[in-house]
Amino acid sequence: MNRVSIQAEDFDPAVELAALEASGGGGVASFTGIVRGEGGLVALELEHYPAMTMAQVERIVAEASDRWPLLGVRVIHRFGRLEPGERIVFVGTASRHRTAALEACAFLIDWLKSRAPFWKKEHFADRTEWVEARVEDDAKAESWKR
Amino acid sequence: MADLTLVYFAWVREAIGRDEERVERPAADATVATLIAALAARGGGYAEAFARPDRLRAALDQHFVPMDSPIGDAKELAIFPPVTGG
């Protein structure tokens, strides 16, 4: 079963993993993204495009399900103000075998980074700065193109 | 035909000073790029936000589109910087 949540609240990866483990496959892979506290970062502010985000992430999940034989996909992406150490994103995949679960998980996080309508703003003690998209992230997403 | 809704995100929204507005539907042959050029000509925050079209991305009715896409009968055009989620 596939499920997507776009939310301000935190989530519990253990609960999400348990649900994926119950999907009947032989393998579960996951990625949890955490706010890094580098360079004196006080907080990260995530803005998104509410009318588009859910549909777009569901399209990305559908693409993963087309490419790999998955039994379950779970995506959670938070928005709003997040402090260093807080979870931002969770991607979990369940499949009969490890390769599909691992590859689909990597694909999903790469595409979320460059194809989901979120924007990060960094807050420091004395200034704020919009995060620039990284060429490497685009290249990673492109590498999954077929 | 009905007006076109424009929505802005991130530093585009901040430069313009609003997150949404309605504009008169552009001519039938208008593309995202030609509309952005027309908006930039308003000056002020618009000129600032749209100074570098290569730094902008767009979505028509909640689907990402290239800048040379015709606006056609879309209801909503979103203009924003490259996304940085994940």
TrEMBL record, chain A:
Record Pfam families: MoaE
Assembly information from the UniProt record: Heterotetramer of 2 MoaD subunits and 2 MoaE subunits. Also stable as homodimer. The enzyme changes between these two forms during catalysis.
Catalytic reaction equation(s): 2 [molybdopterin-synthase sulfur-carrier protein]-C-terminal-Gly-aminoethanethioate + cyclic pyranopterin phosphate + H2O = molybdopterin + 2 [molybdopterin-synthase sulfur-carrier protein]-C-terminal Gly-Gly + 2 H(+)
Protein's job: Converts molybdopterin precursor Z into molybdopterin. This requires the incorporation of two sulfur atoms into precursor Z to generate a dithiolene group. The sulfur is provided by MoaD.
Residues in the signal sequence: none
Top-level taxonomic group: Bacteria
E.C. number: 2.8.1.12
Functional pathway: Cofactor biosynthesis; molybdopterin biosynthesis
Keyword Ligase included in the entry's annotation: no
Family: Belongs to the MoaE family.
Keywords assigned by UniProt, alphabetized: Molybdenum cofactor biosynthesis
InterPro entries: MoaE_sf, Mopterin_biosynth_MoaE
Protein name (Swiss-Prot/TrEMBL): Molybdopterin synthase catalytic subunit
Top-level EC class as recorded in UniProt: transferase
PANTHER family: MOLYBDOPTERIN SYNTHASE RELATED
TrEMBL record, chain B:
Gene3D superfamilies xrefs: 3.10.20.30
TM region positions: none
Cross-referenced Pfam families: ThiS
CDD domains in the record: Ubl_MoaD (cd00754)
Domain of life: Bacteria
NCBIfam families per UniProt: moaD
Name listed for the protein in its UniProt record: Molybdopterin synthase sulfur carrier subunit
Provenance organism: Sphingobium fuliginis (strain ATCC 27551)
